[in-house]
Amino acid sequence: MSSQEEVKQLEARASAMEGEVKKLQKNMGDVEKFLASGESPHVAALKAENAKLEYQIMHLEKSIEEEKKRGACNSIRSSTHMTNMLGALRDTFNASIRIAFPELSATPKALVTVGKKGADYQCNSALGLAKDLKAVGVAKNPREIADALVKNCPPNELIEKMEVAGPGFINIFLKTSVISELFKEILTLGVRPPNVGPSRRVVIDYSSPNIAKQMHVGHLRSTVIGDCLSRILVFAGHDLLRLNHIGDWGTQFGMLIAHLEDKFPNYESESPPIGDLQSFYKESKKRFDDDEEFKKRAYKNVVALQTGDKKIRTGWQHICEISRVEFNEIYKRLGIKDLVERGESFYQPLMTQLVAELQQKGLVVEEEGCKIMHLKNQKVPLMLEKSVGGYTYDTSDMAAVRHRLREEKASWLIYVVDSGQGLHFQQVFEGARTAGFSDEHSRIEHVAFGLVLGEGKKKLKSRSGDTIKLKELLDEGLERSAEKLREKEREKVLTTDELEAARDAVAYGCIKYADLCHQRTHDYIFSFDKMLDDKGNTAVYLLYAFTRIQSIIRLAQSDSDALTQRAASSGIELGKPSEVKLAKHVLRFAEVIDRIHDDLLPHVLCEYLYDLCTCFTEFYDNCYCVEKDRETGKIKSINWSRILICEATARIMQKGLNLLGLKTVDRM
User: Fold this and answer.
1) Where are the beta strands (DSSP E) in 234-335?
2) How many CB atoms lie within 10 A of CB 381?
């Protein structure tokens, strides 16, 4: 849409509202004349009516100003953002509600959803508005309200027609010509994010393994969900800091360093060759439990570590570095990037400052020798300092919130941690509000998730009953993926490099997708057999669907660059119902990203991509793209409009899979 057309659309909205103002002003003038005549015995009632009319005028004039200020931001088209059709329709119906019902002081948000029974979208606001209007003394049935909303709907280039159905549902049908133009933009302008508002400084905390312990299956969900949300928020335009709050501090390091001193006494000058840190940890723990002298040395080492003893610090750094190498190997395999390590040790010096500030603000009380902080609406207080001295997880997490909001200048904090920590984070977030670290502009969220279960719906364990190591899980994924590809005899059509790339994409992709496709707050059952199935909502199915589209484009002897040029010089014809259906579903990508931006639920993207593959299959079954001669196998004709549809679908699929953290391959 041109800027001139945008202005006309906004002027139409403002003009409609100004018409309502004139009506109200006339009514108000009539009332004022009547009051001046002094003939009515109901002067008080009329004065009240007059005040009500004045308020309605003020409310409408404010709405007019808001519409004028929205300018191009409310425009359907943008060179930098993909059109959010659902968002654009909500804006339109929000304006319609303000125009049609100015008597509502707090205008409800329009309830627009994906449509049913042939409609593209549906506005379901009428039932709720009937209750709101009744509360201010206006009796209207939902059907009348729906008719009024349609009548007062500002112009929107997306809408072909609207129909009121049932008790007041408004069915919305989109213009195919506009869908075609928006669809073409995917090729000419690229896959862009929706407009989610101003960019924010976001700190997201995820993964968080413990030093001297191997990452296990329990770290999978935090790592995968955190990485996916990070990708989506960066795509949406936010300034992101990904933090890995590792467990690198505490009493366990005393025993580890004591064991290090005995096993590798020259560790200060020679890096200790610890081959298996997990075994090393178990050995030190056994000595700690069985040997009182060793336990005393361990406690002394903890004190020395906290006071900065150089030798003890060197031992601690060696142990951390060995773990760091192991963690980074896992992250490399999973494609986890830009994760900044900032462990518990980082916040140690900040905790003293925290407690001092809270004491100065009068928020700390001493009970039984402990320093605690009582919270509004929380039965359990924050434990800031133990009676024997020493800080707690409450203290370190409060110090982290304080640092992230003040020093990192973040306005949005996200903690991707299991559901079991829900109460703890409620307390910490309430503590941050009470202390004045956060305010009404701060968005602080605990992104909770459930457990990974085995086939028996119990915590996933190895055959020996131990927690499964993440490395072992990834190794098994590679083996099973390779076996699956061998079953399909893919080694006959793929090169060695292509086969290896396909194996890795399937192995790591299926593990990630199996986690992300479930509602994150629910537990899920881990099953390699199900996640490697090439039918149903699995990574394998999606990856195969993507390579299928790529093969169609190769058959047409074209590539992405050539198709971008072709799209710029020609249109996309959407004639058949399956073409229109696919194009509309592709364009829903923007509203899906917008929704995840709000509720941080990645499974919504998984559902969208699975439905997209289903739509594409229907399109491909009904619409030939490349026609071959049945006898010679030579290409007879190419429908370039449909090849462009394939390319746009592939680009959205690739971006969606990338946001989930899945790597695509062109051949599988």
Assistant:
1) 239-244
2) 18
> What are the residues facing 412 on neighbouring strands?
202, 443
CA angle 615, 620, 621 (to 5 degrees): 100
State the first-to-last Cα distance of the chain, in angstroms, to the nearest integer. 41
Rounded to 10 degrees, what is the CA torsion of 545, 546, 548, 549?
120
pLDDT block averages, 10 residues each, the chain of length 668 = 47 58 60 55 59 56 48 62 95 93 84 88 94 91 95 94 94 96 96 96 97 90 98 98 95 92 90 85 93 93 89 94 94 96 94 96 94 92 88 94 98 97 96 96 97 84 75 94 93 94 96 96 92 92 96 93 93 94 97 97 98 96 92 91 97 98 94
Beta pairing partners, 366: 371
Which two structure tokens, joined as six digits, stand for 40? 């009515």
Give the containing element (helix H, strand E) for 530: helix 528-531
Number of Cβ atoms within 10 Å of the Cβ of 283: 16
| Helix (H) / strand (E) containing 167 | none
Reported as type and span, the H/E element at residue 395 is helix 393-406
Separation of alpha carbons 448 and 429, rounded Å: 14
- Fill in the DSSP letter of residue 558: -
**pTM, whole model, 2 decimals?**
0.87
The residue to which tokens 């590792």 are assigned: 246
> Torsion over CA of 346, 352, 356 and 357, rounded to 10 degrees?
0
Q: In what order do the strands lie in the sheet with 339-341?
A: 339-341, 239-244, 201-205, 412-416, 443-447
* SS3 of residue 374 by DSSP: coil
